[in-house]
Design a protein that fits this description.
- The chain has about 150 residues and is mostly beta strands.
- Helix content is about 5%, strand content about 30%.
- The chain has a seven-stranded mixed beta sheet. It has a three-stranded antiparallel beta sheet with strand order 1-2-5, with no helix packed on it.
- Strand 7 and strand 8 form a beta hairpin.
- It binds zinc ion.
- The site of zinc ion (ZN) has 9 residues, from loops.
């Protein structure tokens, strides 16, 4: 991976991408459509010019409205993109990045539909969840090197 780019992809490795290191914008969205698309309380995205994304493999597309299409890996289902069909940009899911700390959201969309517990997780009891030390554990997710793309 070059200094001036970021890499990421889906959990199975069938779809990988490279983008410039500086997104146009990074945000989270709490709207109900993003909740359904992710299965989680919000989606986190970074926006780039669509022409700047270099793909290895291609996302499958679900057109979630007449305005927007959402891309995901057709093999493993990982949500990957959000795109206004008539716009020049595409948004990529922040946590599909190989380095999930590489980009921080700077804007919150649709906070009025944020689920009530989303911002209240800090005080919950905690527990370790790490199966990688179990000798029976086999990881089926992509664990390659970004430089090998
Ligand atoms: Zn995949």
């Amino acid at each position: 991976m070059a200094e001036d780019e970021l890499t990421g992809g889906c959990q199975c490795g069938a779809v990988r991408y490279r983008v410039p290191a500086t997104p146009l914008r990074a945000s989270v969205c709490y709207c109900r459509m993003c909740q359904r698309a992710s299965g989680g309380p919000f989606m986190a995205f970074m926006r780039h010019a669509a022409a700047d994304v270099v793909w290895t493999g291609q996302p499958a597309i679900f057109r979630s409205s007449n305005f927007v299409e959402r891309g995901f890996c057709g093999a493993c289902g990982t949500p990957l993109t959000y795109r206004w069909v008539e716009g020049p940009n595409i948004s990529l899911t922040l946590n599909s990045l190989d380095d999930p700390e590489a980009v921080r959201p700077e804007l919150r969309y649709s906070p009025e539909t944020e689920v009530s517990w989303c911002g209240r997780l800090e005080g919950l009891p905690t527990k370790q969840m790490d199966v990688t030390g179990d000798a029976r554990f086999v990881n089926h997710q992509w664990t390659g090197s970004p430089t090998a793309d």
